[in-house]
Amino acid sequence: MTRLSRAQLQERNRARVLAAALEEFAERGFRDAKIDAIAERAELTRGAVYSNFPGKRALYFTVLADLAERAPEPPDPDSNPGPNPEPSLTPREALGALARAWLARLPLTTDGRHGLARIGVDLMPEILADERTRRPFAQLTKLNALLLGLALERLRPPATPGDRLVRVAEAALTTLHGASRLAAAAPGFTDPFTIVGACERLAGLDLDDGWPATPWIQRARPADEAWSPPPVPDAVRAEPVRLTDDGDGVVAILGLHRLEAVEEAVRAAPPGAAITAVLVTGDPDELAPLARLALADFCGCLRQAFPPSAWPRLRVVLDGSGTLAASAGVPAVSDATEVAVRVEAGRIVVRADGRGACHTAASTPGRAVADEAGRPAPTRSSAPAPGR
Hints:
Elements: H1 6-32, H2 35-42, H3 46-52, H4 56-70, H5 91-103, H6 116-119, H7 123-128, H8 131-155, H9 166-185, H10 192-202, E1 221-226, E2 232-234, E3 239-241, E4 249-255, H11 261-268, E5 274-280, H12 287-305, E6 315-318, H13 323-327, E7 338-344, E8 347-353, H14 357-363, H15 366-372
Parallel strand pairs: 4-5, 5-6
Antiparallel strand pairs: 1-8, 2-3, 4-7, 7-8
């Protein structure tokens, strides 16, 4: 019999703890679940549980995140009629499809004792009980609203640069989160057909959805650094990506208290620029699984409701370990981190940090910053100019 390495043993024990915690939370709920009972189910010691998770809440968030990431995404028949795999949806139809995908996960309509919604009935009370979780969750919800707004805009491109659908998306998520709370607190009160209809009608509202200029102006710093980031999973598409494959763009490294700054990068970047939001945290054991959960739960509905051609181009990467941030020259991160870099031809050519960094890096061309510093900017090719 092959002896397990220390890393393999830790991974096996972690998997056993998660499986036992799933059973305990499903049977007793978060409030009544006990760490000792989880250890007994896993046939491990209490210390072995705590060596993998700092507390019950971190374990709870991780169980829910795993369930959300594994949740099946059956196609919504109303979002894909006929044989055409890329239907021409309107924002109204897409919001209706999103609402149906969302409501299908609520306790009233979810079958099975291990469903995400049934085990997660204690999630929102637990988030609301502590500012350490409430503030990141608010920022994660703003990020989800931005993703939804960008997807809606791909179905109905803005007539003018200031004509956006992000506020409509915020109203839709407000409605859907409210339906989720009522489904848990007052089963039977929420009528799914009413909620779907309300979300559909939001697409026709004029919510004065302009983006004002950012009040935070930072000075960009020129740079000339090679960048070779590791492959990472994109939470929007649930698939690995290489950040260097899309060419030039902006990489925003943001703590979970600063996710709203992604919107500043999106609105300031030139058309077609690749934008990647790298989410970091100073509490990876507890807040990283909360971020995984919030994104996986929403993006699963987004992928179900919208055809791939309408998925937002914005990429979102969860960097709980800080490895990707370190590869971009940000070795220390916290929930207040806001650093943005501009990448051209595989090199970092602009840096900015602090409030307004995303807007600055996205709106300042690398060549302009390098010229201002009195030296040539990195170019796409080292070949001599014609005639030389």
